[in-house]
């Protein structure tokens, strides 16, 4: 298991300046997006830096749902700044951008695709040391503060891909639930669906003993190793928190207990999936985000079309589970029970349908758009969606059941409408 150090509690952000001082940092890069730049979480960080006499430069140009271009812009900033530490204040978009900026600024001679996941990039192993990074998550979703994963939209292919290496995980994740009180309703919902899917996918991923090939040297061990007894603990616990608190966190911005619980669940699920991996919903979500046409996400203060990550992932979950359940039906049924299904008289062979139905009810109750059609896709887009899923082998191969192109088409078709 590889995870970042974690510190949790209301107000912990005020310690960040001291942490940087303890690290001996002399020139710090603070990253955020320009919407968050106006909000209290960034003020809390900057106050602490100023109070502790930390010299810093601010980069607030992170793109929400980053692209290779926006990553490269941040990398250029980082290279010029020659920073000796990084602080990311934001959701997954900011934390991932900061990881990439740190990696490439620490290896100035490398090409962008060197470290990007194969087969899109070269998937090179990171062997050079990166600078310490502190992540201050402000959404309750990605768990990126705990993982060595940085995701971006690769414009040339119109699909998301990423960089995955334990070497780029933050040194410290500072989980300060006060920051969650500022999140708009749909950001809570969509980032919460990401937690739900991280937990569900890592729990149902191909078991680590069945994944192959076994790496010849531990340095080549992938970040995503398949479901395993340690990740399972984190995944199941995160799923229970989602079942109990997600709806409350969405509907009542004053519900501190619910928002704080989801903030922890995000890190817990991150610890689980950061080592076990995710599988088909994530693999299929990358073209759903990448091929976006005109869909505008409610509550996202941005000027471009986007399908928020959590939404792009959860929308295929009922169809995918109907498909994967025959492989490990007990786990699928257990997940359905945690999400509220009565399984006392359930037959094991119906596990997939039961989990899919439970998820549909869960999503309907939380106002999720009615499938891919509502996100602007039609049947005519299915071949492109399938084509964009094929290079996502890093995750699709972790699905409990292998998929043909035809089966992927069927899964996209079945996700056109949810209800
Ligand atoms: N690295 C990983 O392990 C990992 C895992 C899952 C997803 N991701 C990636 O993370 C990105 C999504 O991240 P996200 O869901 O955290 O959202 P985000 O970072 O994209 O932010 C979404 C919106 O919410 C706003 N926002 C964030 N925190 C706020 C707060 N406290 N108050 C008010 N507004 C706030 C942002 O300004 C932005 O407009 C995607 O690119 C996705 O692919 C990465
Ligand atoms: Fe995710």
UniProtKB/TrEMBL annotation:
It is found in: Mitochondrion. GO terms for molecular function: alcohol dehydrogenase (NAD+) activity; hydroxyacid-oxoacid transhydrogenase activity; metal ion binding. GO terms for biological process: L-glutamate catabolic process via 2-hydroxyglutarate. It catalyses: (S)-3-hydroxybutanoate + 2-oxoglutarate = (R)-2-hydroxyglutarate + acetoacetate; 4-hydroxybutanoate + 2-oxoglutarate = (R)-2-hydroxyglutarate + succinate semialdehyde. Its main location: mitochondrion. Residues 226-416 form the Fe-containing alcohol dehydrogenase-like C-terminal domain. Residues 5-177 form the Alcohol dehydrogenase iron-type/glycerol dehydrogenase GldA domain. This is Hydroxyacid-oxoacid transhydrogenase, mitochondrial. It comes from Sphenodon punctatus (Tuatara). The gene is ADHFE1.
